[in-house]
Amino acid sequence: MNRQDLYDVLIIGGGVSGTALLYQLAAFTDLKRIALLEKYATVAAVNSNGRNNSQTLHCGDIETNYTLEKAQQVQRTAAMLVNYTAPLAARDQIMFKHQKMVIGVGEQECAALKERFKLFSPHFPAMQWLDEAAIQKLEPNVMKGRQEAVNAIAIVGEYTTVNFAALSESFVEQARAQKDSEVDICLSTTVSQIEKQGELFQVKTNRGDYRARFVVVCAGGHSLLFAHRMGYGHYYSCLPMAGSFYYAPKCLNGKVYTVQNDKLPFAAIHGDPDILAPGKTRFGPTALVAPMLERYNIKTLPEFFQVLRLDHKVLQAFWNLLRVPDIRNYIFRNILFEVPGIRRRLFLKDARKVIPSLQLADLQFAKGIGGVRPVMIDKRKGELHLGEAKIDSGEGIVFNMTPSPGATSCLGNAEKDLHIISDYLGCRIDKEGFYERLNNA
Ligand SMILES: Cc1cc2nc3c(=O)[nH]c(=O)nc-3n(C[C@H](O)[C@H](O)[C@H](O)COP(=O)(O)OP(=O)(O)OC[C@H]3O[C@@H](n4cnc5c(N)ncnc54)[C@H](O)[C@@H]3O)c2cc1C
C-alpha cells in the first residue's frame, strides 16, 4: 500500500466505536477509500475488550440512573446492535441472552422501583415485576439470608450481554466484505500527529504518513488529547474513571443490578456472568479517579495531565463534586477498593447488597481486568458531562470520547458521524439500506 494515497475517511482508534463507523461507511455510503488506524496489533484491545468492561447491552430498562428520555435513546441504539447481529452466522459468539434484573433493597428503594416500573413498563414491554418469591425462583442467592425487603424489575429471554471485542471484529469483517469500497485496516499503527494542510489532513504515524479528506478520532480519552493539540474542545477536561472488578465462583444465573444512588454520577456495582470466564460471577465495576488515559498503562500518565488542563474551572468542577457528601465518600471509598489488604473486605460489604451470603473467601480481585471511562468535565458548566461526548470541528474532523454506555451506543454514535461526514464531503448515504439493516426490528 502506498501510504501517501489519499483516503476519503481515516478513522483513528480500532475499538467498538471506530469499527462501527468503519462498517457503516463501507456498507451505507458511496465513499471509495476508508482506513482504520489502530496502535495495537488487534482491534478492541483497550476498553472494548471483553475483559475490560461489564459486557452489558444497556437497554435503559434496569439502569435506574437513566431518565426515561435517556433510557429510550439507549433502547434504540441497543436495538440497532441486536438488528445488526441478527443475520450473522457468528451471532451466538457476539450476543447472549442472560436474564437480568435490578433489585430494590429496603423500603425506600422498593418504593422507588415500583414507581419506575409504572413509568417505564409501557415503553419496555419485556419488563416483569418480581416480588420476593419470584426473585427466589430466578436468583435464589439474591434472597438467601436477606433481612431487608426486596423487589425487582426483570427481563428474561432478551439479549443482554455482548462480547464487544467479537462485535468489533465482526464490524471489520462486514466492512471488508463490501465490494464497492476499499477498506484498509492498519494495525500496530500509532498516530502521533494530525495536521490540516489546505483541504486535506496529514496524519503522522510510526509507519509513515496518511492523507485524508475527513478524519474521525475514536481513541477514547486520547481523542480529547488530539482535539486539544489541534485547538478544539478546550471547554472539556477529562476525568478518567477506572473500573475494577472482583470475581466469585458462579453465584448468579444472570445480571443483577442495584438501584442507583441518585446523588452519584456513576453506576452502582452489579453482579454479572462473565462470558470470558465461565463458572464465575464478576462484581463491579468500581469507580476510581485514575491519572491515566489507559488502564494499567503508566505511559499514559503524562497524557492525562495534558488533557486535564488544570485551571480554576476544573478545580471548581472538582469542588462541586467533592462538596456533596455522598460523592465525596464514594470517591474515597473507591480509592480504598484498590488498596491490597483491605479492598476485598470493603468491597464485600457492597457486593452483599446483591448476595447477602457472600463470604470474604469467595471474592478475588480481578487482576489486570478493567478499563477507564473518559468522563468529560464541562468547564463551561463546572460539572461532569455524563455519557458520550463529541467535538465536531465543522472543518472535516470529529473527536469522540466514549465512557459507558459507549459500547452499546456504538452504532448510534457512528450514525451521527455518518451524517456529519456526508454533509461535509457530499457523499451519498443509502438511507433505506441503513434503515432496513439496522433500524427495522
Ligand atoms: C469498567 C467499565 C465498564 C464498562 N461497561 C460497559 C458496559 O457494560 N456496556 C457498555 O455499553 N459500555 C461499557 N463501558 C464503556 C465501553 O467500554 C466504552 O464506551 C467503549 O468500549 C468505548 O469504545 P471506543 O472504541 O470508543 O474506545 P476504546 O475501546 O478505548 O478504543 C480506543 C482505541 O483507540 C486506540 N488509540 C488510542 N490512541 C491511539 C493512537 N494515538 N493511534 C492509534 N490508535 C489509538 C486504542 O488503542 C483503542 O483501541 C464500560 C467501560 C468501563 C471502563
Topology:
Layout: E1 6-12, H1 16-28, E2 33-37, H2 68-85, H3 91-94, E3 95-96, E4 100-105, H4 107-120, E5 128-130, H5 132-138, H6 140-143, E6 150-155, E7 161-162, H7 164-176, E8 182-186, E9 191-197, E10 200-205, E11 208-217, H8 221-229, E12 236-242, E13 246-249, E14 255-258, E15 270-273, E16 280-284, E17 288-289, H9 301-308, H10 312-322, H11 325-336, H12 343-351, E18 364-365, E19 372-378, E20 383-385, E21 389-392, E22 397-401, H13 410-425, H14 431-439
Parallel strand pairs: 1-2, 1-11, 2-8, 4-14, 11-22
Antiparallel strand pairs: 3-7, 4-6, 5-6, 9-10, 10-11, 12-17, 12-19, 13-16, 13-18, 15-16, 19-20, 21-22
Helix pairs in contact: 1-7, 1-13, 8-9
The protein binds flavin-adenine dinucleotide (FAD).
Short characterization:
The protein is an alpha+beta fold. The protein contains 14 helices and 22 strands. Helix 1 runs parallel beside helix 7 and helix 8 (221-229) packs across helix 9.
